[in-house]
Fold Lactate utilization protein C.
Amino acid sequence: MASSREVVLGRIRAALSDRPTAPEVPRDYDQTRALGDVIGLFAERAADYRALVRRVRWDDLPAEIESSLRARGATRLVAPADLPAVWRVPGVVWSLDAPAYPLPVRTLDRSDGVLTACAVAIAETGTIVLDAGEAQGRRVVTLVPDYHLCVVREDQVVGTVPEALASLEPTRPLTFISGPSATSDIELDRVEGVHGPRHLEVLIAG
């Protein structure tokens, strides 16, 4: 016996059976633009969204992570289990999250923040994209803590959104982050931290 869903979908298919197939949509829009210094542009645009952005040397990254955490007084951090060991600052209590042993939401909420890498960063929009890949973890790990420290490699910065999309796998859980989480009500009163961290810090390493 067919389910209600199958019945409804069957009726829709029957109603559309005499309609022409969808036309081919042209995709001839610009994929890239001459943006000059894309790393500098990304830093500028991300800062426009009220993110704290610093450019650091790759060899100095562990010390710079420690400096960021000390400045916030952060002593309890959440991180994906595959986060590089050299990024884990000594003296900080690290709670490592993995699909096989996910941290409870209470632990995420009580942490001082989360440290991750990213998949790609978009200069034109100042956006960081996570895809749950290496050193990024589950989506919830970066949505519950109030502070997100994200490491962006210089070679991960692209100019435009089409360039970023071309490098991503669309079936992965993609999260686009443009500054700290914020929203506005009907009177345009800005409220931060509703859908994710109120504080975003980005270290651009190269």
Q: What stands out?
A: The first strand starts at residue 52 and ends at 56.
